[in-house]
């Protein structure tokens, strides 16, 4: 799952944590009686852009007021000036396996917008050197302050716990069949951070255990108070395959077979009685589906039509192949007529019988797309799309038919407006 963090979000965090008045020296007598006062304000929002060495470049625009005293023997004349400069910093970001972020910020120089000059009438005194010395000291201290501030503000652990617990909530994938999908995350891998001019990208690879339930909503796993440490990987595929199951009870399969065949008559010869299906039920026998049909007329008895289930992608239903026929009757004449009946019924079952999955596929697709494009919490927005959803394997259980459904999808997480 690709994750994108716009640098504007980090800028918002930084700007909300930095006061407009960044620094103030209100003493004339400190720093060896330098007779110098200074105040430093932020004039515009701090700006972040991605660097070329997997780092962030930070730009801090400042307005500075300075006042200098000139004189001897304790008698001074004071003059003030206001000027502007832009400080630059370079920050390396380290994402630790315990979901914490640490930064290493270093001064990267500054640029004068207007230079500081004290005007004493006939005497104009540039104080660039004096101010630069103070600015360099403050820039180094501000680097440490920014690292400490980001460590507190960019702690991903609460968001990781939030996402982990939300991920584990069962959600409806079919109202028609009252089917629930439950995904339990088990482990996370993360790729290295990639820096762009306006965003940071990374990819999450989540190992999950998925289950499908029919009927009552299953309980969610116990909410986690912390998530496991992640493991670094170099890359992750941009698609994932989620395998879930859909269970079709034999009672439902029997109902569908009754709709298709109960009361149906088969005519063979003009003027001769036909064959009518008076009862039918469906069940499993090893790896085959069996249709047990009661017939009357030209052939009276119990017919067993069995076949191996498979998914027909064009018809979008579970059908039978390798169809076999057996007849149980006491009438020897019926056994003779059964040869004609067999070829006809086998063809009909092979061509017409099936358990439709189109509605289940469509409702599942709609529900999953909706779940993949939701802002579950403010600032954490999922966007995703399905690239494929279809049954891939049919398994017979004692109580019914289980279809393994392959869901191929792409999912993306955008962190914004936290």
Task: Fill in the keyword field for this structure.
418 residues; alpha+beta; Bactericidal permeability-increasing protein, domain 1; 10-stranded mixed sheet
How far from one another are the termini? 20 Å
Residue share in β-strands:
over 45%
Q: Average the pLDDT over all residues and give the rounded result.
A: 83
Instruction: Kindly provide the radius of gyration, computed on alpha-carbon positions and rounded to a whole number of angstroms.
Output: 37 Å
Task: Provide the helix percentage.
Answer: 10-25%
SSE blueprint:
Layout: E1 2-6, H1 7-17, E2 21-25, H2 30-33, E3 36-42, E4 47-50, E5 55-72, E6 75-95, E7 101-114, E8 117-120, E9 123-126, H3 128-153, H4 157-167, E10 171-174, E11 179-190, E12 194-195, E13 199-214, E14 231-232, E15 240-249, H5 250-261, E16 265-266, E17 275-285, E18 288-297, E19 301-312, E20 317-328, H6 332-352, E21 355-356, H7 358-372, E22 375-377, E23 380-396, E24 400-415
Parallel strand pairs: 1-24, 11-14
Antiparallel strand pairs: 1-13, 2-3, 3-5, 4-5, 5-6, 6-7, 8-9, 10-11, 11-13, 12-13, 15-24, 16-17, 17-18, 18-19, 19-20, 20-21, 22-23, 23-24
């Amino acid at each position: 799952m690709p994750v994108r963090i716009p640098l504007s979000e980090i800028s918002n965090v930084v700007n909300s944590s930095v006061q407009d008045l960044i620094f103030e020296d209100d003493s004339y007598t400190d720093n060896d009686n330098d007779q110098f006062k200074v105040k430093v304000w932020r004039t515009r929002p701090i700006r972040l852009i991605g660097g070329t060495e997997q780092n962030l470049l930070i730009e801090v625009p400042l307005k500075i007021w300075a006042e200098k005293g000139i004189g001897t023997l304790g008698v001074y004349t004071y003059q003030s000036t206001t000027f502007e400069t832009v400080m630059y910093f370079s920050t390396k970001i380290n994402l630790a396996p315990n979901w914490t972020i640490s930064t290493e910020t270093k001064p990267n120089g500054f640029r004068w917008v207007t230079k500081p000059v004290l005007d004493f009438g006939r005497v104009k005194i540039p104080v660039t050197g004096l101010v630069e010395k103070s600015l360099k000291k403050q820039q180094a201290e501000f680097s440490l302050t920014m690292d400490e501030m980001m460590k507190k503000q960019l702690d991903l652990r609460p968001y990781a716990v939030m996402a982990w617990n939300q991920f584990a909530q069962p959600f409806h994938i079919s109202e028609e069949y009252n089917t629930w999908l439950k995904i339990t995350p088990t482990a996370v891998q993360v790729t290295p951070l990639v820096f762009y001019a306006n965003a940071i990208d990374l990819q999450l690879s989540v190992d999950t255990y998925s289950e499908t339930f029919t009927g009552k909503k299953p309980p969610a796993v116990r909410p986690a108070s912390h998530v496991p440490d992640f493991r670094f990987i170099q890359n992750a595929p941009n698609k994932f395959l989620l395998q879930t199951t859909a269970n079709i009870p034999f009672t439902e399969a029997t109902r569908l077979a009754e709709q298709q065949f109960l009361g149906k008559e088969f005519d063979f010869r003009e003027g001769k009685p036909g064959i009518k299906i008076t009862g039918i039920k469906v069940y499993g026998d090893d790896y085959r589906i069996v249709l047990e049909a009661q017939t009357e007329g030209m052939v009276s008895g119990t017919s067993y039509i069995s076949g191996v289930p498979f998914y027909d992608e064009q018809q979008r239903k579970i059908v039978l192949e390798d169809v076999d026929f057996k007849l149980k009757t006491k009438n020897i004449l019926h056994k003779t007529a059964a040869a004609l009946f067999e070829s006809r019924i086998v063809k009909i079952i092979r061509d017409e019988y099936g358990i439709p999955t189109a509605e289940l596929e469509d409702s599942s697709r709609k529900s999953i797309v909706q779940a993949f494009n939701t802002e579950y919490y403010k600032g954490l927005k999922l966007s995703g799309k399905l690239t494929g959803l279809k049954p891939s394997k049919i398994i017979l259980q004692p109580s019914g038919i289980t279809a393994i459904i392959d869901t191929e999808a792409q999912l993306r997480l955008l962190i914004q407006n936290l």
